[in-house]
Queue: 2 jobs
Job 1
Amino acid sequence: MAPRFSELDFPRPTRERLSLRFGQVSTLLDQNRLHEALGLFDTIRRDYESWSAMTDLRFSQDTTSATNRAERDYADSLTPHVTAFEVAIKRRLLDAPDQQAVRAALTPHTLELWRTDITTFDSRIADALEEEARLSGEYTALIASARLSIDGRTVNLSGLAPYAESTDRAVREQAERVRWAFFADNAPQLDTLFDRLVHVRADMAAALGYDAYTSLAYRRMRRVDYGPREVARFREDVRTHVVPLVQQILERRRATMGWECVYSWDEPLIDPHGNPRPIGGHDMLVAQAQVMFDRMGGDLGGFYRQMREGGFLDLRNRDGKAGGGFCTSFPTVGMPFIFANFNGTQHDINVFTHEMGHAYQNWKSRNLPAVDLLWPTMDAAEINSMALEFLTWPHMDLMVAPGEAERFRQMHLIGSLSFLPYGVCVDHFQHEIYARPDMSPAGRHELWREMERRYLPWRDYGGIAHPSAGGRWQAQGHIYRSPFYYIDYALALCCALQFWQRSRTDYDRALRDYVALCERGGSRPFTGLVLEAGLTSPFQPGALA
């Protein structure tokens, strides 16, 4: 029986306690007690990850709390020390005289991940890692601090979404102007934050002997089966096959609506009749989701009931709460947690089913033998989340207003296709940034405009100064907090769309294949999991076409 979230209490680690526990692992290895050493090593890491996840979650739930911020800062200061202990033990095991015993005790993929991990850390970059985490937290708090006035109300950035999707074009334009006024007002601070992050990361790469941060970043993402060359080819495939299609869709929408052109504030209105809305507010959606997952069969309904009744959901938007949505987990108890910001738009359904996909995968693979395998690398993890978005399609009548399920499905598909050019735009931007870390803030803004012209040639901000000058990227938190992550969404979407295609001819098979993929967790690298699921790799020529 899973515990309730309110009952979770993970001991606060200290450097001294961590040193003692990791020292016990070394002692067991000295005594040739390999299996006991590996068991303790795994337990220590699960304990620390559970506490760290809770610390990050509480900060995200209330970024204004001095207590939460202090505890987050404390965790950031501990992380380099924990990494140093982990890397030392991984090195020792990878260099152990009895490699046959090590290979018998650990999966080949685990060993490959460890070989990658040991190349991403040295005690010389411990202070830089702490500074990187601190700056990332500063960005999160700054974005969460937004207080925007519109229609006589004060909202945060998440609360602006309903206005951005209004059928009234003037309201959409106003929402766009209000949004970018906040970023324009904070542009100097945002530029300074990012400049410091870029240089901290470039310095870490240099200290570890890399020619540029990009090489280190790919290893930090644990990408063991592809590199920048394959990603560049995928970006070009998107440019060739998807960009013209999205341009056609937008032109058809322009003609249908009778607009003189498509401005940036028109793009969120995907359906000319108005984007379909959720059937109700927070409580209604949470209850309807139970019916939906029960209908889908298997153990999805039972798992969701555990999440719901155990308090492992935080979906309401509120002041001081970090923006966006994510899924985290507590590996000592085998339960994930979903964080989101419902705002009354169709995005509530998308983000909920997306994060539910992450949660279900983590729960299905909770009994895999090592903490390294509980999550896939993020490229593969995003298949689990995005595929569930599509696999819930037959039950959308439960989640949207009566008669709007088909319009929701069409909007979801168009939105997915439209995301691909933006996803690769963000990725290409980051590759160029870290190839030239000394680029000026003005140069970075011009670079973003160049990327938009390449991948989003239709984008027109209607003269709004900040995004027209190349400041749009500052609203994409991944660029600050999780460099090179964003392409994972595009790669995974190419795979999730294949699950959608499969479900149209054999839904039961598609769902079985999906559950099997979730059960595999992180037992294989991205391309290995794609192959085992019977999917075509995004890197294979013709996959997007």
Job 2
Amino acid sequence: MSILDWIVLSIPLTIVLSVAVLTQKYMKSVADFMSGGRVAGRYLLTIAKGEMGAGAVVFVALFEKIAQSGFTTNWWIWLQMPILLVVAISGFVIYRYRETRAMTLAQFLEIRYSKRFRVFAGVLGFVAGIMNFGIIPAVGSHFMVYILGLPREIILFAYPVPTFVLLMGVFLSITLLVTLTGGLITMMVSDCIEGILSQLSYLVLIGALLLIFSWDQIAQTLSARPPGQSMVNPFDSQGIKDFNIFYVMMMTFLTVYGTMAWQNASAYNSAALNPHESRMASVLGRWREMGKIAVITLLAVCAITFLKHPDFATQAAPVPAIVAQIPEAQIQKQMELPVAVSFLLPVGIKGLLCAILVMGMIGGDSTHLHSWGSIFVQDVLMPFRKKPLAPRQHIRALRLSIVGVAIFAFFFGMLFKQTEYIIMWFQITTAIFVGGAGAVIIGGLYWSRGTVPAAWAAMIVGSTLSGGGILVRQIYGPSFPWNGVEIAFWASLIAIATYVVVSLLTCRESFNMDRMLHRGPYAATIEKAPAESPATPERKISLVGKIVGIDSNFTRADKWIAGSLFGWGILWFAVVIIGSLWNIVAPWPESVWLSYWHVVGIAAPIFIALVTGVWFTWGGIRDMKQLFIRLRLSHVNPLDDGTVINHQNLDEAGAESRMEYPTSQAKE
């Protein structure tokens, strides 16, 4: 790392820490700390939430997948696009969840089912979450050690200490500062600024890579794989075990089934100004994700080319020796491409990539810390109390819990030995909760006959099967015939069947869905945000719009955004169907596949990255301004703290049902 690289790296860190100090004054209540006052606009949510997917661990996880399968998995991924886009545009789960006004998922589960089930789900989600999060700071710190060119160990007080452990402590400390000051308000603003800077940095990074590597060099490298393990021809990749068409099909099902069930970004699910803004943030997130994936994909294939193409043999010569010094086999695999990246980038650009990674680490880790720390307090600690905490005490408890999660992640990351691909570890730990929770959430939001016994049964069955899979996989390792995705898939199917059967056997009375969703006569029980728009007049919706999920809340601009995204997905879905049939009859030669990926895998995503970089920068700045205006006008309601009384949020329950509540001021 040169002095210029360190300067480039320090600039975004300075900005983020300054934002943390300046925004804490806007945090006045538990609802502000937990949900940002529920006044966030779509672009702010899209950029801020998306930043948690820009950290070093995401780069490493996708590097692993691309190094194994190249572009071949991407061919099959387009088959899932129409399904995922309908889910996003229709607001499946997301819209109705925001209507409940719950701050955490388990709060909704108490409204829909029972207090005991809320506690059970809170404990289960918390345990699964901190296990999932436990490796993230460690993987990110390992990446930074090698990309910064730091030694593996540092002598501290006469004892050798792994450098990644020290870096992990530094990054977690910075993240805690951001998270603890103003809660979600600080996180949203800092993550949005990080996201805007990252989007603009992506464009510079793309330009640098295209100047260093030619497509001919990349194509020659990707073509040099034996038959059955092609990185460009999906019909000649039968030897690739984990990342194939069956992986994509199962992941499509699990993604839809687990919509919003995983709570690593739970605060963002309740932070939108209204349900429609939450839905549009999900739609816009699809556009932004394509731009980010372009950078990671290009960086990965360039790193592979750097390692294997003879034109770069001299520059890449030190990489194998550095990787060989890593004692853990799985870490060796993970760090091969990051080490290559540290050698291939020029001065200044290397610092820029480090800045992107560090901003992503802060954004991702802060969201995890806030989510799991809040879930412990809201869904494990608070339900056992007979009286709610005063706002000041409540916020202090949230902060202490967040610190506890950071301490756990530090020691877990330091001691845990990785034996899985990161993506597989994420999937199996997620399934500990989502395996049963998907059925419980979808059934609870859309089926009035879902029952409490069914929720218990589905959650226990799904979690037991998934947790058992983790244990067996850890014992037998890669020799076990099922990977993490396959375990999660079958556990989820059994949980769905359990929920449906038990509900049909035990339902005696339908649940009042209108009251839970604040519809009809119950709409008057909630207090509108000062800047929230009045009810949208009915608009005529076409048949295609209804099929896709467009409703009367969509403005003309919203329809263009959603329609263009859906059209883009359908276009490539059709290309995959036609191309698959074509290859069955007359297989494309390698040269055709290389030309295809040059356009679809590199050129088109880069164009999207350019467009979204400008588009979302404007939208993010606009929404940050609106956030502060709404926060100044917002009314502090001390009863809005996540407590549930008789299947209603405390601030909505009738006066006769409300608890005696402390009157201490919320602001600290």
